[in-house]
Amino acid sequence: MSDFVLDPRLERDSTLLMKLGLCQLRLMEDSRWPWVLLVPQRSGISEIFEMTPLDQTMLTFETAIAAKAVKQASGCLKINVGALGNQVRQFHLHIIARDEGDPAWPGPVWGHGQAKPWATSARAEFTERLLEAL
């Protein structure tokens, strides 16, 4: 893990909330959706199949607990989980809370409008609820 370096774009677009067993849990800097990233702390990984079977298992576990916490903290209708990697090759997994009537519903969030920064109080409240749910 000592040679792990976070992609500069992921670092710019998100904030570290905590480190789990395998992944960094990061909050996306877009308040339109409660949206977190899981970034495995492994170097040179761009696809899930490049991870060891144990890391794949850990990722599945951490995805489930993070997704459940996002749903609980946001009260959303649906959780979307995806790993695209077309713009940022470093493997990372998006966990996004979705609701009917959100800015991109029912389409994907990627490429929809401009990111809206979190208000300090809203960020603190969501982060507190999320970490408590974890």
TrEMBL record:
This chain belongs to the protein called HIT domain-containing protein
| Any Pfam family the entry gives | HIT
The HIT domain sits at 36-105
Q: Matching SUPFAM superfamilies, A to Z?
A: HIT-like
Q: Which Gene3D superfamilies match?
A: HIT-like
Q: Which domain of life is it from?
A: Bacteria
Taxonomic source organism:
Hoeflea alexandrii
